[in-house]
Amino acid sequence: MTGSPILVIKLGAFGNVVLAFGAFAAIRQHHPRARIILLTTAPYAAWMAAAPWFDDVWLDARPAWWDLQGLLSLRRRLAEARFERVYDLQTSNRSSRYFSLFPRPRPEWSGIAPGCSHSDRDPRRNFLHDHERLAGQLRQAGIADVPAPKLDWCGGDITRFGLPDRVALLVPGSSAHRVAKRWPAARYGGLARELSAHGITSVVLGAAAEAPLAAEIARAAPAVDLTGQTGFGDLASLARAALLAVGNDTGPMHLIAAAGCPSLVLFSDDSDPALCAPRGPRVAILRRKSLDELDLAPVREAALGLLSPALA
Q1: Is CATH 3.40.50.720 the right assignment for the domain spanning 158-311?
Q2: Nearest to 9 by CA among 101, 122, 73
Q3: Residue 75 CB burial class (10 angstroms; 0-12, 13-18, ≥19)
C-alpha cells in the first residue's frame, strides 16, 4: 500500500512516545511513498515535526466527549483527509473512540477499537513491554520488521552550557503526581560525590519545578543544574556527550537511553520495568519495592560497572 494518506496516533506520554520510535520507523519503511500524518498532543508536536517519519503533524486538542463542536471539528478533519489506514499506537479509550468519528466506510485500522479491520488480538498485549506490544500490533497489520530507530535527526546546541568533558547525567525527578518513583535526592547527592572522586561532574536534568532536587544534590557535591533549561534535542545531545546517566523511571531517561548513553534506571513498585523500561544499547535496571529502600551502595556499584570502560 503506497501513495495513500496514513494516520498514526500517538498522544503521549514522553517515555511512551520514545518507545514508539521503532514503530514510527517501521510504518515509514512500510509506506515509503505515503503521506503519513501523526496525531499527537502539544508537548510533542514540534519535536515530531522534525522527525524523518512524518510528512505532517496534527495537534489533538483532546475535545471532551460533551464538546460537540470540538468533536465535529475533529470528525470533519479526519473525514476530509480520506485516510486509507490508521495506526492507533496509543490504544487508549480515547484513541479507540476516534474510530467511531470516521464516516463509513471507515479506513483500515490497526489497534483495539471494536470492529476495526486489523485488531491486535494478542491476549498477552497488556503484559508486554511497549516495544514488543507495538511490534506485535504491527505484525498483525502486515509490518514484520521493526528496526532500531536512528536518532541522528534529534539534537541541540549544548555548547551554551559550557560543560566539562567528563560528565554524568542525573535525573532525580518524576511526574509530580508520582513521587513514589523518586530515589531520594540526598542519595543522588552521595552518588554525585562518588562520581566527583572519579573526576566526573554531575549534570542534573529535569523540569524547572525540580530545581530544589538539583539544589540538594549540589549541596553534597559539585553539580551543574540544568533543570528547566533543556529541550528534547538538548537531552539527546547531552546523552551522546555523557559517560553515564542515572535516573528514575521518567521520560528523559527514555530519550537518554535511546540516544546511546549507558543508563542506570531506578524503579519502585510504582511501575514495572518489564512493561516500560527504557531501551537502548546499554541499560541497567535496579528495582526495590520502595526507592527509600535502595541504598547508595548498589547504585554506586551498578553505575561504576557501566562506567568501567571510561575508567579503564
Answers
A1: no
A2: 101
A3: middle
Whole-structure pTM value: 0.96
118: cell is: 486489523
Domain ranges of the chain: 6-140, 158-311
CATH topology match: 6-140 vs 158-311? yes
CATH of domain 6-140: 3.40.50.2000
Looking at residue 43, its amino acid is P
Measured in whole angstroms, the distance separating CA 163 from the mean position of its chain's CA atoms is 25
State the amino acid at position 58 in one-letter form.
W
Tens digit of pLDDT per residue, the chain (312 long)?
A: 456 899 999 999 999 999 999 999 999 999 999 999 999 999 999 999 999 999 999 999 999 999 999 999 999 999 999 999 999 999 999 999 999 999 999 999 999 999 999 999 999 999 999 999 999 999 999 999 998 889 999 999 999 999 999 999 999 999 888 999 999 999 999 999 999 999 999 999 999 999 999 999 999 999 999 999 999 999 999 999 999 999 999 999 999 999 999 999 999 999 999 999 999 999 999 999 999 999 999 999 999 999 987 776
User: CA-to-CA distance for 119 and 106, rounded, in angstroms?
Assistant: 14
Per-residue buried b or exposed e for 214-242, using 16+ beta carbons within 10 Å of the residue's own CB? bebbbebbebbbbbeebebbbbbbbbbbb
CB 264 within 8 A of CB 286: yes
Measured CA to CA, the distance from residue 213 to residue 206 in angstroms comes to 9
CA distance 131 to 278: 10
